[in-house]
Amino acid sequence: MNLTIIGTGYVGLVTGACFAERGNRVTCVDNDPAKLDVLRAGGVPIYEPGLDHMVARNVDSGLLQFTDDVAAAVDGAQVVMIAVGTPPGEDGSADLTAVLAVARAIGAALTGYAVIVTKSTVPVGTADQVREAVQGALTRDVPFDVVSNPEFLKEGAAVEDFMRPDRVVVGTDSERARDVMSELYEPFSHVREKLIFMGIRESEMTKYAANAMLATKISFMNEIANLCERLGADVEAVRRGIGSDSRIGYSFIYPGIGYGGSCFPKDVKALVRTAKSVDFDAHVLNAVEARNELQKQRLVERIVEHFGDDLSGKTFGVWGLSFKPGTDDMREAPALVIIQGLTALGATVYAYDPVAMGEAKRDLQPLMDAGSVTLAEHQYAAAKGVDALILATEWNIFRQPDFDALKRLMAAPVIFDGRNQYNPERLRRRGFHYVGIGR
Ligand code: NAD
């Protein structure tokens, strides 16, 4: 099939590469010239395991190409996907500026029937706005359908998730569009049974409900962790105890320093706004967000309990910057909140991340210029001479470090484990002062 994807970020590029991998002719459109330069030169502007080879392979075979020309890319496409960002607006609602601008550009370029798909995460009712925007921009009388096909991939495992999804949700009220979408997803053989068709509003809501549920599990567990801390219980034992209940399960009940990333924070906020717009108080969602904001500060509070609230002259090593392992995405990363919290109290920070330091520079540059933050060459350089080490992102390389070497390197053997990766007893036996979350 001929496919056009507008917005070549984490979602658009993975989607484009994976559909090309299945033999479709895919044109990816973006309006960021720097991103297009990298892609056209055979590079991949984001870190996503397996993506670079897949992009290169499909560019070489001519199935995948990149452009900034919406009109040329839309002409002749059977499916046009909108995968641009929907960042939070000032009031927390999803900002649809890019989605609707793209919808108008598609309308102006349509020359024949096409299925226009919103892959971006958009509030319930957006498909109606997209349809109006396309309709209003048409230059000739061509039929089209608007379909909702939200994306559920996880950064860090995006290619694998796209190729083997738990489900593919398609919201449509058109038989013709349903046929096209079935054909599009058919080559993903294992997807066949996993294609779930539903109404458009239900599909739009499914994406928000899924992310809100996952964020709720995290905030719930962080709340239990905070209680455990005050009650002298170890939340890790509690986690294993409840996860073994098949109704609860083990996933997304890991206590930590709060959720980040480009999706959970903005999608919970947007759903709260959607609720407000229909005069509904989303009590649970408000609490999920409030707990998360507090949780991002929790490790700084524990550090202050240990060192006092004047951290001038103190240095800290931070392992991990991205909001989770497997990605270079720094959007809403809890590590940033911790670094900002520590430096605001006078501390100096040495930070290391195996892939996100380039991205992190954008946020940390002012602190780097002020001399409060230095990006270290490797993980042990970030621990050299520090008063404490903070684990902020549980990358594999941080899971089993050489603790004896660490102890020799650090000015004091103190570890704040924001991801409960280490065994407290074993560390204490090795002479470390250990602080985790909820234990
Ligand atoms: P992103 O910021 O990585 O990518 C968006 C891309 O769109 C950028 O490359 C940008 O240059 C481009 N763009 C913006 N306006 C444009 C325009 N007018 N014309 C052409 N290109 C334009 O965003 P993302 O993380 O890929 O997310 C995209 C959407 O998918 C969002 O709605 C997000 O909520 C949703 N989503 C993201 C993930 C994820 O893990 N990142 C997962 C599921 C759903």
Explain what you see.
With 439 residues, the chain is α/β, with parallel strands linked by helices. It has two domains: 2-198, NAD(P)-binding Rossmann-like Domain (Rossmann fold), CATH 3.40.50.720; 213-435, 3-Layer(aba) Sandwich (Rossmann fold). Helices cover 44% and strands 14% of the residues. It is built from 16 helices and 14 strands. It has helices spanning 10-21, 33-40, 51-60, 70-74, 97-109, 126-137, 158-163, 175-185, 200-231, 235-243, 264-277, 283-307, 334-344, 357-369, 403-409, 424-429; strands at residues 2-6, 25-29, 64-67, 79-82, 114-118, 144-148, 168-171, 195-198, 315-319, 348-352, 373-375, 388-391, 414-417, 433-435. A six-stranded parallel β-sheet has the order 3-2-1-4-5-6, sandwiched between helices. Strand 4 (79-82), helix 5 and strand 5 form a beta-alpha-beta unit. It is globular and about 75 Å long. The chain starts with a strand and ends with a strand. 46% of the residues are buried. The model has no long low-confidence stretch (mean pLDDT 97).
Distance between the termini: 54 Å
Assembly type: single chain
User: What would CATH call the architecture of the largest domain?
Assistant: 3-Layer(aba) Sandwich
Q: In CATH terms, what is the fold-level topology of the largest domain?
A: Rossmann fold
What ligands are attached or bound here? nicotinamide-adenine-dinucleotide
Structural class: alpha/beta
Tell me, what's the shape?
Answer: globular
| Overall tally of structural domains | 2
